[in-house]
Structures are given as structure tokens and as C-alpha cells.
């Protein structure tokens, strides 16, 4: 009997609801079946995003600023919907059903997008070459079908991103040393395959879009996702399923409601009189910060449910530990707010930077580099930076400071600095590009006698910045959040990406309105060669620098909390150990 119990996982069940048997469920094989879903999601989302701006401008005949905003709104919605996906997974569906349902939604979205780019009725007629400025914009019906397909994909992405990595980690028993090693291996490969999916998207898929046809490229995405779903479902009997713990959002709301209800009641002078029901080993020490929330733990007679005297109503009475968990999440918010601007600068790499590239000389011999494929330098910068950090910086830092690399906040700071320098480089490159365009009198259809490799520094700097800020944010939000709210903190991290894209859309709209005129000119003109994109990039550089100063103030204010448990977040976030990369 004891041997049988040792082969089961305490907090996991199999597909029938029985305790999960280690010998028949979970492990690396089960986790590997989940990876295909993430690869195809990355392939679809990035393959669409990095080259969508050229389709909107060149085929749908939308103005430059409108095209850029459409892309950033699409990406922003994709990441924002991660919160919805996480809520549904935690509260109702579980991770397995969430992945299955939302992967089908994304398959339908990419299939509809393939159809919308294939049928002539769903796009406007080509421009008249003799009247290049009289292009007919896509009508409401055509844009409606395009938006429907894009936001189906965004909905699918949101649901998948919130659950795939978590469901993969569910396949390993954290109390088993051997399986913990396998979990590390899974996270290593998880990030590796994400990178492979991104590289394939910005190279092969973008090339197919430009040279063969967009409908073929999007059709490949739809078919590959369908195959990935079949592979995922084939592992149903092998998976381990963790029981739902309830939504952290509901727990936070309970504390706020209880504290608000008791706002007029005075706090007891002795903290020990506050309600606490958590086991001693899992309790969080009381803190004096945000003491207004402590009122949620004041014990009153009416807090207990009728006929169940031992069970308090969670909307009226919360434990000190639950209150402290909410306080910990609130402490994260200043750092959270000051990382949003980075993703606003990131958004320019897949919108205006791609537009810049489309006007420049992109030939290498007889081969023409697709404009969207310039983001390969962005992805390459991420991988190179992570490799240098793991192989060189960590070892040198450990010898010098005795610490394994930079702290999470230090990495975020480095990312913010690199993005500021990147936007400065982008502004200088655009000054050069505009001077050449002015000399030759180029239009958006004219290829300027200027090498596209002039844009490499901005891609490389912002890409290197992402390598630092992404891993820093992931480390910070997971290790500094309470154990019961890890999913919530991951959603909080992903929401910075979402808000960064939305801020980009808002900034573009404001700049176009303030600097524009009736003839479509201004910083963000309909014809990129008639605008002043260098000024827009300069504005982003200044904003990034001011934001960096605010971030430094927030880090001084932030009272660092001790992580709830030891996480191998460096490996999980970076994707590979130093030994493997070297």
C-alpha cells in the first residue's frame, strides 16, 4: 500500500479523477506533447504581426498611422486576453480545457484570415499606377472580416498563453528531485521552441507571404495548429491535472470588499486580535503598510455564515495572510507601471520600423529580403544577449560580487536603458533615411538607394533590451508575489505588454492629431517619406528616459519581500542553462 502511495502525485489526478500514477502520467513526454501548441501559436501570432502593417498599407490601402495602430491593437488585445484566459482556467475550465478550446478558436481565426486574404471580394482593387494617390481604401465589410479573423486569433492567443506553460509544469512533481530536473529541462526547451517558432515566423513565413501568397502562409498556420491540437489531445490519458484553487482576482476583491465594508471600524491595537486561519508554515507576517486593508481581518459576529458558525463569509472576513497577499500585489504596481513604456517602444519594431524597411534597399545579390524579416535581427539580439549573459556575465558577476547575475530590478533597468538608446538610434537612422528620400523625391513605392542594414542598430538594441526586461519582469513578478497568486502575477506581467501596445496606439493617434493637417501631413504622414518619423522616435526616446528615472524612484520605494519559495526562474525565463548554451 505504501509503495502504491509513493507512485502517486499528492496534488494531481489523472483524466478519470483518480490520484495520478507517476509511472503512467506526467513527465517529459507529456510536457513535450504540449509544446507543439505553443510553437504554432507563436508561429501564427508573430508571423501575422511582423508583416501585417505592409498588408494593411499595400493591399487594404490604409494610412500609415492607421495600419500601425491596427497591428498594435491586435497585439495588445492578444496579451490583455491572457487575463481572461487565466481567470477561466483558474475558476471554471482548468488548464487542459482552456488550451483545447482556445487553440480551436485560433485555428478558426487563422483559417478565416487565410480566406480573407485569398478572396478578391474581401480586399479593395489594386491602385491605379497613374493615380497612385487615389487608392481605394477597404470598405467596412472587408475590414470587418479582417478584424473578425484577427481578434479570433487574439482570443485564441490569450487563452493559450495563460495556460500552456502552467499546464506543462503541472506534469512534474515539485517534491520529486528527478522530476524537478525534468521540469528545468522542459522550461529550457520551452523557451528554445518559442524562439524557433518566432524565427520561423519572421523568416520562412514572411517570405511565403511576400513571394508565394499570404493565404498560403496563413493556411499553413491554420493547418499546423490543427495538427498540434490532435497531438495535444492524444496525450489526454497521460496528462496530470491539478485541482483548481479559485481565482486570485476573486480573492483580491474579497479583501477590498471586506475592508471597504468595515472602513469605519477602528483597528485593534494588538495585531494578534485580527483573524487568521492559515497554517503556521504558510502564514505571511503582518506589515504596517496599507493598513486600511487590515480592516478586512477585524472579527465581527455577523461575519460568520448562518448555521455554519466555524466558517466565516469570505466577503466579510479575510485572514491576515490573505490581506498581506493583496498588499504584496499592490507593492508590485509601481514597478509594473514603469515597465509599460518599454513595450510601447517594442511596438515600433513591428510597425513603423517595418514600414521604414519596405522603402529601403533590401537586396543581397539576387535575393530580396522581405521587410518583415528584418525582425530576425531583433530575435537574434535576444538569443545572443541571453547567451552572453549566461556564458559571461553570470560567471564574472559571481566571481566579482558573489551573486549569480543581476537582480530582477537591475535587469529591468538595463532593458529600459537599452530601449532608450535604441529609440535614439532609430531617430538618427530616420534622419538619414528622410534626407535620402528628399534628395531622390521618393514615394512609398520607390526603393531608396539606402541599405536596410541602417536599421539593424535599433532592432538590436531594443531586442537586447527585451532579453533583459522580459526575464527581469518574469523573475520579479513571480518571486515577489504570494504563492497563491503566481498565475495572477504572470497575468500582471503580460498585461504590461498589452498596455504597451495600447499606449503606442494612443500615442500615434495623439501625435497624428496634434502634428497633422488636412492634407495628411505631419510627423506621421500617410506617406512615410513626407512625415517626420524621426521626431516621433525622438519623443519616444525622451519619454523612455523620463520613465527610467521614475523607475529608479520606484525601486527605492519598493520594499523587497522575501520570495515564498525557491524558484529556478533564471533558467525558466532565459530558456537554457549557461552550460547548455556554451
UniProtKB/TrEMBL annotation:
Chain ranges passing through the membrane: 74-93, 100-120, 140-160, 186-209, 215-235, 332-354, 374-397, 409-428, 448-470, 491-511, 536-558
Record has Nucleotidyltransferase as a keyword: no
Pfam families in the record: PTR2
Keywords: Membrane, Transmembrane, Transmembrane helix
Membrane topology per record: Multi-pass membrane protein
Superkingdom per UniProt: Eukaryota
UniProt entry tagged with the keyword S-adenosyl-L-methionine: no
Gene Ontology terms for molecular function: transmembrane transporter activity
Classification via PANTHER family: OLIGOPEPTIDE TRANSPORTER-RELATED
Entry's family note: Belongs to the major facilitator superfamily. Proton-dependent oligopeptide transporter (POT/PTR) (TC 2.A.17) family.
Protein's name according to its UniProt entry: Protein NRT1/ PTR FAMILY 6.2 isoform X1
Organism of this sequence: Nelumbo nucifera
Lineage: Eukaryota, Viridiplantae, Streptophyta, Embryophyta, Tracheophyta
Gene (UniProt): LOC104595373
Amino acid at each position: 500500500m505504501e509503495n502504491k502511495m509513493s507512485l502517486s502525485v499528492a496534488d494531481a489526478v489523472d483524466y478519470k479523477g483518480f490520484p495520478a500514477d507517476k509511472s503512467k502520467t506526467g513527465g517529459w513526454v507529456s510536457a513535450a506533447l504540449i509544446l507543439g501548441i505553443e510553437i504554432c501559436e507563436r508561429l501564427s501570432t508573430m508571423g501575422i504581426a511582423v508583416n501585417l502593417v505592409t498588408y494593411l498599407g499595400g493591399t487594404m490601402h490604409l494610412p500609415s498611422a492607421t495600419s500601425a495602430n491596427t497591428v498594435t491593437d491586435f497585439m495588445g488585445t492578444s496579451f490583455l486576453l491572457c487575463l481572461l484566459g487565466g481567470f477561466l482556467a483558474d475558476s471554471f475550465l482548468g488548464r487542459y480545457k482552456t488550451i483545447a478550446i482556445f487553440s480551436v478558436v485560433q485555428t478558426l481565426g487563422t483559417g478565416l484570415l487565410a480566406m480573407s486574404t485569398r478572396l478578391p471580394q474581401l480586399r479593395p482593387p489594386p491602385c491605379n499606377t497613374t493615380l497612385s494617390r487615389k487608392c481605394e481604401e477597404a470598405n467596412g465589410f472587408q475590414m470587418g472580416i479582417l478584424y473578425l479573423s484577427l481578434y479570433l486569433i487574439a482570443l485564441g492567443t490569450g487563452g493559450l498563453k495563460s495556460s500552456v506553460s502552467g499546464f506543462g509544469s503541472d506534469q512534474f512533481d515539485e517534491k520529486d528531485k528527478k522530476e524537478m530536473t525534468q521540469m528545468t529541462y522542459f522550461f529550457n526547451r520551452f523557451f528554445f521552441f518559442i524562439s524557433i517558432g518566432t524565427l520561423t515566423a519572421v523568416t520562412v513565413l514572411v517570405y511565403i507571404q511576400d513571394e508565394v501568397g499570404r493565404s498560403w502562409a496563413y493556411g499553413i498556420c491554420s493547418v499546423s495548429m490543427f495538427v498540434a491540437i490532435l497531438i495535444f489531445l492524444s496525450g489526454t490519458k497521460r496528462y496530470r491535472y491539478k485541482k483548481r484553487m479559485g481565482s486570485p482576482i476573486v480573492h483580491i476583491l474579497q479583501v477590498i470588499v471586506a475592508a471597504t465594508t468595515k472602513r469605519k471600524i477602528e483597528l485593534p491595537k494588538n495585531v494578534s486580535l485580527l483573524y487568521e486561519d492559515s497554517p503556521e508554515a504558510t502564514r505571511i507576517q503582518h506589515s504596517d503598510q496599507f493598513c486600511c486593508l487590515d480592516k478586512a481581518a477585524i472579527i465581527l459576529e455577523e461575519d460568520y455564515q448562518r448555521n455554519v458558525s466555524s466558517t466565516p463569509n469570505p466577503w466579510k472576513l479575510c485572514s491576515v495572510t490573505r490581506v498581506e497577499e493583496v498588499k504584496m500585489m499592490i507593492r508590485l504596481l509601481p514597478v509594473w507601471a514603469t515597465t509599460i513604456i518599454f513595450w510601447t517602444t517594442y511596438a515600433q519594431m513591428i510597425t513603423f520600423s517595418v514600414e521604414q524597411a519596405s522603402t529601403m534597399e533590401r537586396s543581397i545579390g539576387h535575393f530580396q529580403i522581405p521587410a518583415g524579416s528584418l525582425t530576425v535581427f531583433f530575435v537574434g539580439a535576444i538569443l545572443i544577449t541571453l547567451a552572453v549573459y549566461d556564458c559571461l556575465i553570470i560567471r564574472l558577476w559571481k566571481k566579482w560580487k558573489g551573486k549569480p547575475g543581476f537582480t530582477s530590478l537591475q535587469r529591468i533597468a538595463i532593458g529600459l536603458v537599452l530601449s532608450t538608446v535604441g529609440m535614439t538610434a532609430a531617430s538618427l537612422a530616420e534622419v538619414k533615411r528622410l534626407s535620402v528620400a528628399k534628395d531622390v523625391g521618393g514615394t512609398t513605392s520607390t526603393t531608396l538607394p539606402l541599405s536596410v542594414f541602417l536599421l539593424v542598430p535599433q532592432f538590436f538594441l531594443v531586442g537586447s533590451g527585451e532579453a533583459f526586461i522580459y526575464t527581469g519582469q518574469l523573475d520579479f513578478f513571480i518571486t515577489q508575489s504570494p504563492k497563491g497568486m503566481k498565475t495572477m502575477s504572470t497575468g500582471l506581467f503580460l498585461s504590461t505588454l498589452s498596455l504597451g501596445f495600447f499606449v503606442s496606439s494612443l500615442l500615434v493617434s495623439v501625435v497624428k492629431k496634434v502634428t497633422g493637417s488636412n492634407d495628411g501631413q505631419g510627423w506621421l504622414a500617410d506617406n512615410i517619406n513626407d512625415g517626420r518619423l524621426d521626431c516621433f522616435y525622438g519623443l519616444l526616446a525622451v519619454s523612455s528616459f523620463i520613465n527610467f528615472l521614475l523607475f529608479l524612484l520606484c525601486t527605492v520605494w519598493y520594499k523587497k519581500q522575501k520570495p515564498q519559495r525557491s524558484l529556478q526562474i533564471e533558467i525558466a525565463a532565459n530558456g537554457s542553462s549557461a552550460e547548455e548554451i556554451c
